[in-house]
Amino acid sequence: MEKQLHLNLLASKPPMAGLQSGSNVKLRMGPGRKRDFTPLPWSQYFETMEDVEVENDNSKDTFRIYSSGSLGPVLMLLHGGGHSALSWAVFTSVICSRINCRVVAMDLRGHGDTKVKNPDDLSAETMAKDIGKVLEALYGENPPPIMIIGHSMGGAIAVHTAAANHVPSLLGLCVIDVVEGTAMDALNSMQNFLRSRPKTFKSVENAIEWSVKSGQIRNVESARVSMVGQVKKCEEPLSSPGVSKSISEGIIEEEEEDEEGGESNHKRKKEDDQEIKKECLYTWRIELSKTEKYWEGWFKGLSSLFLTCSVPKLLLLAGVDRLDKDLTIGQMQGKFQMQVLPQCGHAVHEDAPEKVADALATFMVRHKFTEFKEGFP
C-alpha cells in the first residue's frame, strides 16, 4: 500500500488499479451535481507572466515564469515532471496572503511554455544550471534572499541546484513528496503507469475532468488552472492509428440517475464521437516516457545531497514514507524539519495548498526569513 501511494514520482499517479493501456476503461461517477471543469486563467492567481531570455551555448533559451509579490524573500517554485508552473497557482495566492514574500514559478525546460534549443536534455545538471541562469537574469549580481521549493522531480532539481551553489543568496530549501529510496524503487513501474494514461483528450475540459476523477489532482480549482499547462493541441492527424481509441480512454462519464437511459446514452456516445472528429484533440505537452534515461540521475544520491545543503531544510510528504537510513539519521539529528500531510495525493501542493502554505509560512517565520502579514494568523 505504501509503495502504491508513492509510486509515481514524475507525474501524479491515479489511485486506480487495473487502468491499463488499451483496457478502454470508463470511470463512472455516482449521481450528483455536475462540477465545473472549465479552465481558469493564470491571471487569477499570479500578478505577472513573462518570458526570461538566457544565453546558453551560443544560443538563447526562453523560460516562462509567473510572479507575484514585491516585498520579502523570493520563493522559487519548481514543478514536477509533466506539470508546469501553473501547478503552483492556487498555492501562490494562499502563501502571498500569509507572509511577506515574492513568488517566482518557472516552467522547467521541456515543460509548459518554455522554449529552449535542446528541450530533450533533462539532466539534473542542466536543469539546475537553468535555475541559476534564470535567477541571474531576473536579479543580476545582487539577488535577494531566495528559498527554493520543489515538488517531485522539481524537488530533486531544487536539491541539485542548492548543492551546486547555483543560488549564492540561498536562504532555505523545501522538498515536497520525493525521497530517494521510494523514487528509485518506483522507477521500474513508471513506464507502465505512463502507458496507462489516456494519450489524448477531446478538450481541455475533458483533461481537467480526467485529472480530478482519476485522482491525479484532487483539488478541482487547482486542476482547472494546472492542467492548462500540461496539455497542448495535437499535431498528429486525427486519422492516425490509435487516436480514436485513446480518446475514449480519456472520457469520463457521469453515472445517469435514470437507469432506463441506456439507449439514449449510446446515441449520445455516437454523437460525441462524431463531434470529436470535428474537434482539435489535446495531448500531453511532454512525453515523459522519453525522459527515462535521466530518471536515475534525478534521484540517485538525493538523500546525501539534501543533507549536505547547509541551509535550513523542510521536507513535506503526502504519507508516512520510507525514509532511508541517511534521512532517518539526519532527522533524528535535527538536520531538517519534516511534516506529513495526510489525505493528500502525490500533488500535495495542489491537493492541499492551504496546508502546504501554512507549513512553509511557519517554517520561514520561525527561521526569521520573513514575517506574517498583518492580521495573520
Features:
single chain; 377 residues; alpha/beta; eight-stranded mixed beta sheet; three-stranded antiparallel beta sheet; 14 helices; 17% strand; globular; disordered N terminus
Gyration radius from CA atoms, angstroms: 21 Å
Q: What average pLDDT do the residues reach?
A: 83
User: How many strands?
Assistant: 13
Model regions low in confidence, pLDDT < 50 over at least 5 residues: 1-30, 238-263, 272-278
Largest sheet: 8 strands, mixed
Structure write-up:
- By secondary structure, this protein is α/β, with parallel strands linked by helices.
- The protein has helices at about 1-5, 90-100, 125-140, 155-165, 180-195, 205-215, 220-225, 245-250, 260-280, 290-300, 300-310, 325-330, 350, 355-365, and strands at about 30, 50-55, 60-70, 75-80, 100-105, 145-150, 170-175, 200, 230-235, 255, 280-285, 315, 335-340.
- The strands form three sheets. An eight-stranded mixed sheet has the order 2-3-5-4-6-7-12-13, with helices on both faces. Strands 8-11-9 form a three-stranded antiparallel sheet. It has a two-stranded parallel ribbon with strand order 1-10.
